[in-house]
């Protein structure tokens, strides 16, 4: 599987996608138009090792729901990600059995390097 989970309306996601090699040959999955499935999330969990790693604490709903004042379990992270797309840290790129989560510069540089080494 070679897939990028992103939000089409997100400027940061668009900028990152534009920075990727045109030969990347990724399947694009807009998580607003096509919510992720339980199976897709479980596969991401297998690769990342935790639902918390996939969870965005920058989401407006995180603040609105007051979740920073609550101790969340792995099941909570999973359920919130499945409940609303904004809880998935974006973008998430899956290259076969490797996963790249979020928009931090070191992560994007690792992704670009992995794609350019192909």
SSE layout and pairing:
Elements: E1 2-6, H1 11-19, E2 27-30, H2 38-48, H3 60-64, H4 74-83, E3 92-95, E4 98-101, H5 105-116
Parallel strand pairs: 1-2
Antiparallel strand pairs: 1-3, 3-4
Description:
The protein is α+β, with helices and mostly antiparallel strands. The protein has one domain: Glutaredoxin (3-Layer(aba) Sandwich), CATH 3.40.30. It is built from five helices and four strands, in the order E-H-E-H-H-H-E-E-H. A hairpin with a 2-residue loop joins strand 3 and strand 4. The longest helix is centred in the C-terminal third of the chain and has 12 residues. The radius of gyration is 14 Å and the shape is globular.
CATH architecture: 3-Layer(aba) Sandwich
Output the CATH homologous superfamily: Glutaredoxin
Low-confidence stretches: none
Overall pLDDT, averaged? 95
Taking the sheet with the most strands, its summary is:
4 strands, mixed
Rg, nearest Å: 14 Å
Number of distinct beta strands = 4
Provide the domain count.
1
- How many alpha or pi helices? 5
What would you call the structural class? alpha+beta
């Amino acid at each position: 599987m070679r897939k990028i989970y992103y939000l089409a309306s997100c400027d940061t996601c668009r900028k990152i996608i534009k920075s990727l090699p045109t030969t990347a040959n990724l399947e694009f999955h807009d998580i607003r138009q096509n919510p992720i499935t339980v199976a897709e999330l479980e596969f991401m969990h297998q690769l990342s090792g935790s639902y918390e790693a996939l969870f965005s604490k920058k989401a407006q709903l995180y603040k609105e729901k007051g979740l920073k004042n609550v101790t969340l379990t792995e099941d909570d992270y999973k359920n919130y990600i499945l409940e609303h797309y904004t809880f998935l840290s974006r973008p998430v790129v899956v290259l076969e059995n490797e996963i790249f989560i979020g928009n931090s510069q070191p992560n994007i540089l690792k992704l670009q390097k992995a794609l350019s080494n192909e």
